[in-house]
């Protein structure tokens, strides 16, 4: 009986919070950001925040949405799953937002996903590529959406790139065992690489905040791979690549979109990054009208070239605005329903339609580092 009362109380709280987040008599439309502003992946959250703020500045300068200005409140998840859950709870219960953008890291987004769903507030993650963000244990989270491609596609892209473009046969994988993102991406890369005739000859692991990787890298080097796949985040990836080159690794080193940070070159050094490649959401040297316009606006606002988290934050904000316009409301449930039907939306990273699992159907690009500069290598379509 006590359990039943608790369930009823939870439902009442959920409805109350959802109702508070609606447009009501508010003079503005409230969007929240669950972002990594500090901690080990702070570069992602800071870039995403910049991209989101730029998009909303443009929207508000053009008259806002539904005759109202859009406000953006950021809660710092400190790059930790438990803090991500706290951040989303704060945005919903204290700030009464209608929609949440974030988080960046898949582990942080997964940790907060059920809280958003329980309170019936939709969220769009710009950068979390693990499939469990939207579908966990076979169940679709009705309130979870994203603008980025997912790891099964990203892993397949890099498996194909390694075998067909680099034409390598033997791969080693170095996994971040503390990140859902890294473990998932490693799985799909391995499946793709083996399917295309390759062999995984070594698999090793590290943890976030590790500093010295040379002993494990020496072990990997002894297995004589043709390529090293590191599906990790920029902080550790930069140190791994730097130390790998220091012990004589000359083979190609490849990875996923978690590499894309303005900090990576600072950590690894431009020379060490030569002969490295990673999958990404857009190429800064592409010349589409959307990319050129966005980069010019971002550079004018922040004085630097935007990385993938920045452009995806920008795209996520515009996906949110599109849904609010089509819902003709800032009510979270109506926004959720509008997000489900997102189709043919032209964003900087491509023309986006969401599939039945709330994932966008879009291409990936492979980026090569040359003397510390990112250079477009090729596009791989779904």
TrEMBL record:
Annotated TM spans: none
Cross-referenced Pfam families: Peripla_BP_6
Biological process, per Gene Ontology: amino acid transport
Residues in the signal sequence: 1-21
CDD domains, sorted: PBP1_ABC_LivK_ligand_binding-like
Keywords of the record: Amino-acid transport, Signal, Transport
Keyword Metal-binding (UniProt): no
UniProt keyword Transport, yes or no: yes
Record domain Leucine-binding protein: where: 29-372
Similarity comment text for this entry: Belongs to the leucine-binding protein family.
Protein's name in the database: Amino acid/amide ABC transporter substrate-binding protein, HAAT family
Organism ancestry: Bacteria, Bacillati, Bacillota, Negativicutes, Selenomonadales
């Amino acid at each position: 009986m006590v359990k039943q009362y608790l369930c009823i109380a939870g439902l009442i709280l959920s409805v109350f919070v959802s109702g508070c987040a609606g447009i009501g008599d508010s003079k503005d439309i409230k969007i929240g950001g669950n972002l990594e502003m500090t901690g080990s992946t702070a570069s992602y959250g800071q870039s995403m925040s910049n991209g989101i703020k730029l998009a909303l500045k443009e929207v508000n300068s053009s008259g806002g949405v539904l005759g109202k200005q859009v406000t953006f409140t950021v809660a710092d998840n400190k790059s930790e799953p438990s803090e991500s859950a706290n951040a989303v709870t704060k945005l919903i219960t204290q700030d009464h937002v209608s929609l949440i953008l974030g988080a960046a890291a898949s582990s942080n987004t997964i940790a907060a996903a059920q809280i958003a769903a329980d309170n019936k507030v939709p969220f769009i993650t710009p950068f979390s590529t693990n499939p469990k963000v939207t579908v966990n244990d076979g169940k679709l989270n009705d309130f979870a959406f994203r603008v980025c491609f997912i790891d099964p596609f990203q892993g397949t892209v890099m498996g194909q790139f390694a075998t067909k473009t680099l034409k390598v046969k033997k791969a080693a994988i170095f996994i971040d065992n503390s990140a859902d993102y890294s473990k998932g991406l490693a799985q799909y890369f391995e499946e793709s690489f083996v399917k295309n005739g390759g062999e995984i000859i070594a698999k090793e692991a590290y943890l976030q905040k590790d500093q010295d990787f040379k002993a494990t890298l020496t072990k990997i080097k002894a297995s004589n791979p043709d390529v090293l796949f590191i599906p990790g985040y920029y902080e550790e990836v930069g140190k791994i690549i730097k130390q790998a080159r220091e012990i004589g690794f000359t083979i190609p080193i490849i990875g996923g979109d978690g590499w894309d940070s303005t900090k990576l070159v600072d950590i690894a050094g431009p020379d060490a990054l030569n002969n490295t490649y990673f999958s990404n959401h857009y190429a800064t040297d592409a010349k589409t009208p959307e990319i050129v316009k966005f980069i010019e606006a971002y550079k004018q606002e922040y004085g630097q070239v935007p990385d993938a988290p920045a452009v995806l934050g920008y795209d996520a904000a515009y996906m949110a605005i599109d849904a609010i316009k089509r819902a003709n409301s800032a009510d979270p449930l109506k926004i959720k329903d509008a997000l489900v039907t997102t189709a043919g939306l032209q964003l900087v990273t491509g023309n986006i339609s969401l599939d039945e699992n709330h994932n966008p159907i879009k291409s990936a690009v492979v980026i090569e580092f040359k003397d510390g500069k990112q250079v477009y290598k090729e596009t791989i379509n779904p």
